[in-house]
Amino acid sequence: MSNGKQHFQVCFCWSRVFKVRGGEIPEDIKKVFESYSMNETMSMDSLISFLKKEQNEVINVNRKAQNIFNSLKHLNKFHRRGLTLEAFFKFLVGEHNFAHQSKVHQNMDAPLAHYYIYTGHNSYLTGNQLSSDCSIEPIKKALKKGVRVIELDLWPDITKDDVNVRHGGTLTTPVKLIKCLKAIKEDAFSFSEYPVILTFEDHLHPYPHLQEKVAQMVKSTFGSMLFIPKSDMDVFPSPNQLVKRILISTKPPTKDSPAESDNKVSPERGRSENGLNNHNQYQQQIQLEEGDEDEVPKYRDLIAIHATKHKGSMENFGSHGSSDKVGRCSMNELALEAAVAEHSHQLIRFTQRNILRVYPKGARVDSSNYDPLIAWLRGAQMVAFNMQGYDRFLWMMQGFFRANGGCGYVKKPEFLLSSDGVCDEVFNSMALPVKKTLKVKIYMGDGWRADFHFRHFDYCSPPDFYARVGMVGVPADACNMRKTKTVNDQWVPIWNDNVEFEFPIRVLELALLRIDVKDYDPSGEDEFAGQTCLPVSELKTGIRCVPLYNRKGDVYRSVKLLMRFDFTT
């Protein structure tokens, strides 16, 4: 029998139960279905068995199986006694079978300093750092994607009677602070209920009346949403304690500034009388200002997280580090790189109680970004990124914060929080044993014909897709992208070549699996066709659906891959 005749018979047989544009169901998927079905039907009991054995599901498996059945009732080929191949395949490529956790599952009762926090840089800019517009739109977009730290640069307007947000010393057009605050209130918790932190880069110090105006705007806009601690904090509250609260973080005015000389109208702030150091005690005794005061607190009293900017030698790094009060310190990416060589231990110790914010160097006028792993490996919680562009590092950042339900807070690895000293995961990862090996197989992709114009990739023929996978993480875990074969002239590429990619991993908590798809172009640069980045520690094993994203990090409506993930020890 010729190959052509074989292909015709296979397509004709399966076309009665499943129709895929431009291709067929991968052979491995057919075999899995056959092994769990009888008379071309998978029963409820067989589906449960599949979920347990192939997908390694252990929690509420019977309920999941019932939900899968219920979600497929609309299919014409769905039988009461079980699933057809078509229905089974629809489940595999659907929302009930995504490759990563979709709910918050980490402990959210530790201090804020114990979490990586999804952080924006110059959150109001629509484009480059020199001449783009300032707007509320990038702020709203960031919040809707789970970003939890919004940066606003405060400047007096030309009349010195109102406050603008803009990038100082550039041609960027300003936006009114009050518009930004109202936009933040509207979308702060539209995606995640966990706290939003506003970092003010305050250029109002020569104008204390404007700082007072900021206090009025902040208080009147956020009201009871605003977190105002009764005193300087010995330890940060937890995300759970701050659900749907907004915190202000900036450098406080000096005690003798005019803005601080008026009569105080908010609860008195001072040193904690009991000097609490234990977080469990703090959880019981923390006092939250509910915002029901008739009078407006002074500017300084609204600052929940006191900030400093690192300057000069590392010998005096983080004045908060030797204090019994916690705070935030900022440094740019170049200062961090300089500090890493000799002061990594000091950085990590600082970030066990305090917050370290790292931001892009000034030369990144194109709003590009830097490698976040350098900062994450030293415990930096706020790795501030330009969210308005797109690049490989931004994809890593977006992928990293898909962890923990995408809530914007990801628990730091225990080795960065240990009071017994810093483990070798940071400094000598090559010497660490391999904890697990991740095995990855790519079966097929679909959705491009629905989401792209039919001439988007090739003018005269369907695209020639190939996929790539790679690992980023500690130096010993990182590896270059590895490539599948190219499937020519197919909108629905199927890789039936049984190729499996293996990735030995030493530090699971910081490992990210990079995936992208490109259209091969023999005459020029291969064309981008989708990407994603997945936190390895949260991968669900078995046959899984992997939605792809565009260059800006927005998920495609239809484009996805069907893949398999397995771990071995």
From TrEMBL:
Every copy of the PI-PLC Y-box domain together lies at 329-416
Give me the ranges of the annotated region Disordered. 249-278
Q: What is its main location?
A: membrane
* UniProt-listed Enzyme Commission number(s): 3.1.4.11
Compositionally skewed regions (Basic and acidic residues) per UniProt:
253-272
Pfam families named in the record: C2, EF-hand_like, PI-PLC-X, PI-PLC-Y
Q: InterPro entries of this UniProt entry? A: C2_dom, C2_domain_sf, EF-hand-dom_pair, PI-PLC_fam, PLC-like_Pdiesterase_TIM-brl, PLC_EF-hand-like, PLipase_C_PInositol-sp_X_dom, PLipase_C_Pinositol-sp_Y
Q: Which PROSITE patterns match?
A: C2, PIPLC_X_DOMAIN, PIPLC_Y_DOMAIN
Q: Residues in domain C2? A: 418-550
Instruction: Look up keyword Cell inner membrane and say if it applies.
Output: no
Tell me the SMART domains matching this sequence.
Answer: C2 (SM00239), PLCXc (SM00148), PLCYc (SM00149)
Sorted alphabetically, which keywords does the UniProt record give? Hydrolase, Lipid degradation, Lipid metabolism, Transducer
Lineage: superkingdom:
Eukaryota
What membrane topology term does the record carry? Peripheral membrane protein
Please write the reaction equations for the catalytic activity of this protein.
Answer: a 1,2-diacyl-sn-glycero-3-phospho-(1D-myo-inositol-4,5-bisphosphate) + H2O = 1D-myo-inositol 1,4,5-trisphosphate + a 1,2-diacyl-sn-glycerol + H(+)
- Compartments in which it is found: Cell membrane
Name by which UniProt lists this protein: Phosphoinositide phospholipase C
Its taxonomic placement starts with: Eukaryota, Viridiplantae, Streptophyta, Embryophyta, Tracheophyta
